[in-house]
Design a protein that fits this description.
The protein is α/β, with parallel strands linked by helices and 141 residues long. The chain has a single domain (28-140), classed as Barwin-like endoglucanases (Beta Barrel), CATH 2.40.40. Helix content is 19%, strand content 28%. The protein has 3 helices and 6 strands; from the N terminus they run H-E-E-H-E-E-E-H-E. The protein has a 6-stranded mixed β-barrel with strand order 1-5-2-4-3-6. The radius of gyration is 18 Å and the shape is globular. It starts with 6 loop residues before the first helix and ends with a strand. The relative contact order is 0.28. It binds 2-acetamido-2-deoxy-beta-D-glucopyranose. 2-acetamido-2-deoxy-beta-D-glucopyranose binds at residues 85, 87, 128, 130.
């Protein structure tokens, strides 16, 4: 006969279940900075300035997601989860397309070494645009 699950473990499992339902996304966690025009993508050959997503919601991939260039054209759902200063994140969820490689981008990110460098429009949608970097949750779609 198996032992009954202790009561405190029951509550723990219940809370775990509850939190996974109230946070339906199961993305990765990383960091993000921003970059501004001129946007002259050089690393993704399929893009020139005239082919940018009209929403201006795009990003340059950092080393962690660049995937030897396979990242070009990939789309991610991104949201801001925290930042150095409280109140930096908005509640918005955005969809961005990778159009460049952050390490060679002509327009430099405010901070080097982040997972994903968002266009200023994209960054300003999910966070206070005066922040230099934020922590993000992201998921490829
Ligand atoms: C954005 O951040 C700056 C600098 O911390 C602050 O002065 C400003 O009030 C913030 N804007 C909003 C809309 O929270």
């Amino acid at each position: 006969m198996s032992k009954p699950i202790p009561h405190h473990l029951h509550s723990f499992l219940f809370l775990l279940l509850l939190s996974s339902f109230s946070h339906p996304s199961h993305g990765d966690v990383g960091t993000s900075s921003q970059y501004s025009p001129p946007f002259l993508p050089t690393a993704c050959y399929s893009y020139d300035p005239g082919q940018f997503p009209s929403s201006n919601l795009f990003a340059a991939a950092g080393n962690g997601i660049w995937d030897n260039g396979a990242a070009c054209g990939r789309q991610y759902l991104v949201r801001c989860i925290s930042a150095a200063e409280q109140g930096t994140c908005s509640d918005e969820l955005i969809q961005v397309r990778i159009v460049d490689f952050a390490l060679t981008a002509v327009s430099r990110p405010l901070i080097d070494g982040t997972t994903m460098v968002l266009s200023d429009t994209a960054f300003g949608t999910i966070a206070n645009s005066s922040a230099a970097s934020i922590n993000i949750e992201f998921q490829q779609i």
